[in-house]
Amino acid sequence: MGNALGDVSNYACCTTRGDEAAALLVKNRHHSWQDVPETEEFQVFFDCYETREEMLQRTFSGDSACSGCMPGQHRPRRYPLERRSSGEMPRTRMQSRAPEVGFRTYAERASVRLPEPVFRDDMPLLPEDVYEDLVPVLKQEVLDQWQKRLKEGDLDEGLQKQLQAGFPELEEWTSLSTVRRMLRASNGNLAQSTVMLMKAIECRVRERELFQCMRCKVACDIRIIGRDRQNRPTIYISARSQTEPLRTLIPQVFLAFEAATRLAQEDGQAILVADMIQLQSHLNLDLFAFKDLANNFGVVFADRLNCILIVDFSWVAQDGCTNADDWCSTLQTLSP
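Request: output the structure for the sequence above.
Response:
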């Protein structure tokens, strides 16, 4: 599942809800993300980090100078949440920020224009540029392995039945963008990328009907609630609303992320907000279902998650998340 997170720019966050009344808003939700109309029209006032432009403006703005401070010092910006460094990170290290909302209406937020991206010849190469020489190699390796499996009949009954109707997934999932994404997720490891892409294609074949109809049984409140400031789709999940065991929930998780992927732009990534208040542990004790979700989700949606914000997680779970280096190379913990 860790492959779903990409490079070092990703963050995983934990925070605690201060208002119990706000938690009650999600208690009686019974509709899935499929019932939310026109998701493109919604904007979320959520961003896990402060942009470089905001940081520079806050640092060098004359308004930020502190009247009672020494020369060169600035009044610290106020945030709605207190923060502390996670793990063994030094306190002097630059942390991700959670800026205040500061907007009263959606129209007011939409009127703010973000800086246009600047591209120069001296800028560092993107990850797909770094691994560009491996793209044709990985694509051909996957095509050869599938041709060998089909020729030797190395397929179970379920896979054979699906492939009798055709194999469009092979062409779709060996596109240049998908191959580059697998290389980014594996940091250019060709052997690992090959295994990931083979498994991802097999999963898409087995779940062909699910991804075609985009319908499933609703077992939890998981939906796309809007976009972040970089226009990435934002997925929300409420653990409190879960009514079915984990195995029944898996198709809905896949469809929520599939919908976010289809709405994604530019980097093709999404944001996940997980509201873990009143997590029902007894519904998530199926280790085989959890392993199945982790193995398939991590390859199908490799490098698709840019950030995870976890709300009301237990301290034990926070420690475990902090130590999960394979999930994200840079972790940020926000706690009261």
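Strands lie at 11-15, 221-227, 233-238, 270-275, 305-311.
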